[in-house]
Amino acid sequence: MATQQTQLLARTLLTPAVALLFIWMIVPLALTIYFATLHYNLLDPGSESFVGLENFRYFLTDPAFLASLQNTLVLVGSVLAITIILGVPLALLLDQQVVGLSIVRLMVIAPFFVMPTVSALVWKNLLMHPVSGLFAWIAHLFGLPAIDWFNDAPLFSVILIVSWQWLPFATLILLTALQSLDEEQKEAAEMDGASAISTFVYITLPHLARPITVVILIETIFLLTVFAEIFVTTGGGPGLQTTNIAFLIYSQALIQYDVGSASAGGLVAVVLANIVAFFLVRIVGRNLEA
Amino acid sequence: MARMVTTRNKVISTAAAWLAGFLIFFPILWMVLASFKTELEAFAIPPSFLFFHWTTENYVTVQERSDYLHHALNSIIIAGGSTLIAMLIAIPAAWSMAFSPTKRTKDVLLWMLSTKMMPPVGVLVPIYLIFRTVGLLDTRSGLIFILCLGNLPIVIWMLFTYFKEIPKDILEAARMDGATIGRELIYVLTPMAVPGLASTLLLNLILAWNEAFWTLNLSTLEAAPLTVFIASYSSPEGLFWAKLSAASTLAIAPILVLGWFSQRQLVRGLTFGAVK
Residue B256: which of A21, A113, A254 has the nearest Cβ? Predict the structure, then answer.
């Protein structure tokens, strides 16, 4: 009797959240699918007509799509590589005995809390400006020519900014994982005469495999839709050089007002994200049982 | 001998860690310094690091010329409002799943997580059109609504992992002693849940404050929070670096402080409990 009551109560408490998330997921997605089958341009109201898969054909064969897909993959891949290759040694370093560790950790984690528009504009104007940015001055000190970052290497510039934002996240997660590593295991290995390198390769690295996977999956989810950093620095240009899928869809929807094509693009983005999500949900789910 | 090596290692790792920390933090430091320079000095080559004419005039100008406080207020209302509403919806849900789990609880949780995986750009078009139709574009309530839904899965997940750690025996003991559900909630659960509630609140405040996809696309002026206000400095109609820096410093300072307090919860919240 009491249990039945409790279960009823539990279900009642859960319902609002489930209902809201269900609506949030289903309604926009259904509308996106519906719009994707229409010829629908906001500049040409009243001309809506059913065109089947035409928008998908248009979006997927648009040269801009291939370029933006490539940019998306390069952006995600590079930022993942940079944050993990720098994050692992950084986390190992912060796991050592360091005087003033709490202050160092505050400095390392700080970029993650800076809003994307601020980090992008500060990097672009104060650091990477070809004439009066700090990097130009440093290059000048070494007698090197200044780099016009956003013209000569626009995508790399965006990658640099986004990596700076996500390095703290990777480091913090890897550090948290390292701190849960059993000290005794490492000590035992050292007593058995294992060198620092083999301790790292055979004990630390396998221990980090899981958190690294988690970092890769979560960062990928967020990096697939990097938007603000591109919006305030390059606007997708020059040409299409920094247009990723998120920015391409945005520009089709809110600059060209082509609702049909942008919706088709949106579904492509959903499919891409779902491939990653599939693996992430499985890993988290496995953890839930343990 | 062994001790000497340890001391040397400590010195080396301390030096390396401080150097790395300084390099990573430097862009923020450089921005804060620039905010106290005149526009001319902020632009000057060679740059001056500490020995410049310190001034606070940029902070005054930012407010006078562009009504900074209006956007700061928007940020506070939008981030605070969306977080509070999300908490109100999430607390009962997480409580129910943590304390009365059913066979389907795990599926429900994973399904909630999967809604967070949907890229916002995938639903930009319908949300924008719905907002335009019902007049929610550039309104605070519209942004509160969207950010609340966007963060709801994370809020529920974080609360769930915290509630899960509250020992169930205590609840049973309270029930044996004849405590009603209401008393159980107020006297037993709440005190134990407060730390988890606080960290969830904090992390989601940070996420909502920094959210820059929906805010950039759905607001322009009236409801524009600081993310959008700062973005307006990207138009190349003159070089206002010192003012950009002052506005940016003000925009990130409160959240940086909150963030530093919540760094442990960050790992837990953003990995959905996969790394603790």
Answer: A113
A218 contacts chain B (CB < 8 A): yes
Task: Check pLDDT > 90 for residue A116.
Answer: yes
Quick one: tokens of B116? Answer: 């967070």
Residue A1 has pLDDT above 50, yes or no: no
Nearest to A274 among B46, B89, B117 (CB): B117
- Scanning A89-108 for CB atoms below 8 A from B yields 90, 93-94, 96-101, 103-108
Tens of pLDDT, residues B105-145: 888 888 888 888 788 888 888 889 899 999 999 999 999 99
CB contact under 8 A, A119 and B231: no
Predicted confidence (pLDDT) at residue A249 exceeds the cutoff of 60: yes
pLDDT tens-place string over residues B41-78:
877 777 877 777 888 888 888 888 778 889 999 999 99
Whether the model clears a pTM of 0.95, i.e. scores above it, the answer is no
Residues of A in contact with B174 (CB under 8 A): none
In this structure, the number of other CB atoms found within 10 A of the CB of residue B16 comes to 17
| Inter-chain CB proximity B47 and A134 less than 8 Å | yes
Does the beta-carbon distance from A137 to B46 stay under 8 Å?
yes
ipTM of the complex: 0.86
Tokens 């928007």 correspond to B74
Does A177 contact chain B (CB < 8 Å)?
A: yes
Span A171-189, average pLDDT: 82
CB-CB neighbors (< 8 A) of A24 in chain B: 115, 149, 152
Task: State both tokens at A206.
Answer: 């396998």
- How many CB pairs below 8 Å do chains A and B form together? 315
Low-confidence ranges of chain B (pLDDT < 50): 1-3
- DSSP-based three-state secondary structure for B33: helix
